[in-house]
Amino acid sequence: MTVADRRNRGTILALTGPAYLWLTATIFLPLSAMLYCSFLDKSPLVPQPASLTLRHYAAFIEKPVYQQLMLWSLELGAIVTICCLLIGYPAALALAKVIKGRWREAMFLMVVLPFWSNALVRTFSWTMVLRPGGLADQAIHVVAPGAPALNLLYSYPAVVIGLVHSYLPYMILTCYISLQAIDDSVIEAARSLGARSWALFRRVVFPMSLPGVLAGSALIFVPAVGSFMEPRILGGTKGATLGMAVEEQFTVTANWPFGAALSFLMLGAVLLICLVLYPPARKRMEGL
Amino acid sequence: MKLGPALLKVHLWLVLGFLYVPIVVMAALGFNASPLYALPFEFDLVWYRALAGNAKLIDAGIHSVGIALVNTIIATALGTMAALAFARYTFRGRTVMQILLFPPIAIPWLVIGTAMLVFFYWIDVRRGLFAILLGHVALSLPYVIVVVGARLATFPRAVEEAAATLGATPWQTFRRVTAPILAPGVIGGALFAFAVSFDQFVISYFLAPPGVTTLPVEIYGAIRKGFTPEINAISTIIIVVSMGVLLLTARFYRFGGER
Amino acid sequence: MSKSISRITRRRFVAGAGALGLGAAGALGAPRILRAQGGKITVLNWQGYGTDEAWALEAFNKATGIEVVHDYFNSEPEMITKLRTNPGAYDVVLTNSAWNGVASAEGLIQPVDTAQISHFNDLNPSLRDSALLAKDGKVYGLSWVWGMTAIAYNTEKVSPAPVSVEVLWDPKLAKRISLRDDAIEAVSYGAIATGQDMNHPADLAKVKERLLALKPQIATLWSSEDEWNKLFQSGTFDVAVYWSGSAARSKTNFKLPVGYFVPNEGGIGWFDGLAVAANAPNSDGAHRFIDYMVDPTFYVEWATKVGAPASANTKANEQLPAEDVGRQIHADQAAIERLQFMAPLSDEERQAFSDLWTEVKAEFAK
């Protein structure tokens, strides 16, 4: 090991140490305890002694409804992530490459500010917009009188709208900070070499902004899979997710081990998907 | 290419409009007479008057903002440091450490909160501000690390190296080169850290001492009786004040990464 | 070791917060040190459920000098969790007929000294002496209020007034029905509709079949009283399962056209008891507070000003004005006879109910 390496090690430790010590004490250790708990036949804190069991994981296999919910949740997470990408990326592009000067800082802040409020209150506001005769209907009737009522509330699209709204800023911001880091001179150089707009975007801009796209997608897909509040309030009976089932194990059945098992299965599925999708994306980035 | 930028600009404005739909509705309902969000709209300041006399709710709002601010400072500092290490060095365990950022985001907050409550009980960390901050910062850290990381991943290391070659000390390089490069990522991370903490219900619900509440606890706890549009009123005040403060800051500091 | 570290760092954090001008947030750290001093009790209850009415706490404080601080739970399992992880933090805790036994069996609550309850003899004996709030012949929860989870309907849209649980399955009311998103309540109504024991239905398959038949009926599921009122007000549903005290509140406070009935086939009854936490720092104050909570003066003000379930104190109910909506709902003797009261469930039963309800909801979502 060279001297430089050893010095680096000190720097790395100093830089990552505080954050990871904090995470270890507050998240990793408690979650490890929860993981252990998912293999117990009783909740911790119960006076009776507990013994090890695999039955909560077996229950996931034996009861098809939980697999169904898992699939639905993953599907919902994917749809929300893709919608956020399709809507958020062009917005980020506009913010990074079209808007100039003071406006840019202002709009950058304006993208995140709605989220300095409460998700439940925001979701109830959405019900006012989406319900029959609600604001969305009224707005459409101003533009096109005689248009049929939208009747979006308590439907799957309502859930997607609510979730896309909740997570869109992550995509816009991460894409923006990546796009903005691309030096305009790189783009100019490519253009002077005769690259057309579309080729320029596909070959230069998009690959260079991939780190932002990936970060945004992860920050959206991962929590959206576990969502339960928006599906319940906006989806009515049409929004069934694994997140709801997890919540129920803690608030109704008092079956922590099963709730924990479901959460870790969800984590496993999400991780697996991210790890499968990451390498090809990285190859794309490195192939620049 | 002339049409492109114009279209993009229109798109951005539409997206901003979409983001503010529920916020505008929320604010409007705070000025509506009906306690049940009933329409037609009837202008009334009754909820603002009620809020002025509701010390408990105002306290909850102050607690939420205060915790979120402290959380933002700590999480942004620690998270940026970790992101720098990930971007600038390759070392054993780096990938594992990055993967470890997933569980805090993926596991539902109720599960993490319960785990934290039980764990803190076992190791005898008492309920209070310290315990709440422990939890909030931990949940904000992954967001900061990922957002700052996205910025660093796009930025070429070469710029810093050039500065060093030109004779800049490490501190000068950091202040003059790295910090401005980082700024948009750090600000973005900080904004999310604030948002995560400000809407975090479970941690305060389990770990705040009796008698002390935060806004989310007041709101999510209202299963039996429900909340009145006073909640809309205080949320509107907080958003409007934040907007004023932040836009004023933006007037004087450039952090959007203008070069 | 960890304790001393946490204490030091906490103090530093509090100081830091104060320096940042976050005085109020800094105060968060303080209550722990102040407590245990005589004139204060801590109550664990649902938020907005009687014990935390500001005017009541003021009156109680004036009479006794005791300051009342609240902590809240959002579900009964979380109530138990909070009791388990905060020994010695609470004085009074709300436990209902289904969960009091869990708390007392684990030693999380202590017997109520009924001699200290001046209104004890005025309490309805069938609630006061219920085995569900007692253990080994001792009272572990002083019966405080009771109510029903029955069916509310929009009097302007549904006529004639429904009398049967079958109204939930009435094809004329397709997409006009709502239930609470709660496994136990849903299974209870499935059991009532199939003529089974509500707490321990023998034939769960029948219950499931009946609940699945609700698919074309359900407009949405509700999860809080606030949401219920908003949904009812906006005309999202016309008939929904609802709590009796809340129905009174919707009618009295929000002037909603709410009708309320206990189906001929039966309805859910429940009662809540106030318990004294084990190791309560101020057991004396806890008893005084519980006594105040069953006092007719408090109850009448609560019921008429805010809306409340029925009091366990018969004298308190009698003092309500005759036109009081809550009184009318809760005074119907024939309806009370039809109630089945919520009993403790085994872990296996709760899990089976939850699995069943999850399956039904997944079918709804398809």
What does this structure look like?
The complex is a heterotrimer of chains A (288), B (259) and C (366). The radius of gyration of chain A is 23 Å and the shape is globular. In chain A, 77% of the residues lie in helices and 0% in strands. Chain A contains 12 helices and no strands. The model of chain A has no long low-confidence stretch (mean pLDDT 88). In chain A, α5 packs parallel to α10 (229-235) and α11 (242-251) packs antiparallel against α12. By secondary structure, chain B is mainly alpha-helical. Chain B has a single domain (55-252), classed as MetI-like (MetI-like fold, Orthogonal Bundle), CATH 1.10.3720. Helices cover 75% and strands 0% of the residues of chain B. In chain B, α2 crosses α12. The radius of gyration of chain B is 22 Å and the shape is globular. With 366 residues, chain C is of the alpha/beta class. Helix content of chain C is 42%, strand content 19%. Chain C has 17 helices and 14 strands. In chain C, α9 runs parallel beside α17. Chain C is globular and about 55 Å long. At the A-B interface, α1, α3, α4, α5 and α7 of A face α1, α3, α5, α6 and α7 of B.
Largest inter-chain contact set: A-B, 107 and 96 residues
The N- and C-terminal alpha carbons of chain C lie at a distance of 54 Å
Oligomer: heterotrimer
Major sheet attributes of chain C: 12 strands, mixed
Itemize the secondary structure elements and their pairings.
The complex is a heterotrimer of chains A (288), B (259) and C (366).
Chain A: H1 3-37, H2 55-62, H3 64-98, H4 102-112, H5 119-130, H6 135-143, H7 156-180, H8 184-192, H9 197-225, H10 229-235, H11 242-251, H12 256-286
Chain B: H1 3-30, H2 46-52, H3 55-88, H4 94-99, H5 102-106, H6 109-123, H7 129-154, H8 158-165, H9 170-198, H10 202-207, H11 215-220, H12 230-252
Helix pairs in contact in B: 1-12, 2-12, 3-7, 3-9, 7-9, 8-9
Chain C: H1 2-19, H2 23-26, H3 31-34, E1 40-45, H4 54-64, E2 67-72, H5 76-85, E3 92-96, H6 100-105, E4 109-110, H7 125-128, E5 134-135, E6 138-139, E7 142-154, E8 177-180, H8 183-193, H9 204-212, E9 218-222, H10 225-233, E10 239-243, H11 244-252, E11 258-261, E12 267-277, H12 283-293, H13 296-306, E13 310-311, H14 314-318, H15 325-330, H16 333-338, E14 339-341, H17 347-365
Parallel strand pairs in C: 1-2, 1-3, 8-9, 8-10, 12-14
Antiparallel strand pairs in C: 3-12, 4-12, 5-6, 7-10, 7-11, 7-12, 7-13
Helix pairs in contact in C: 8-9, 8-17, 9-17
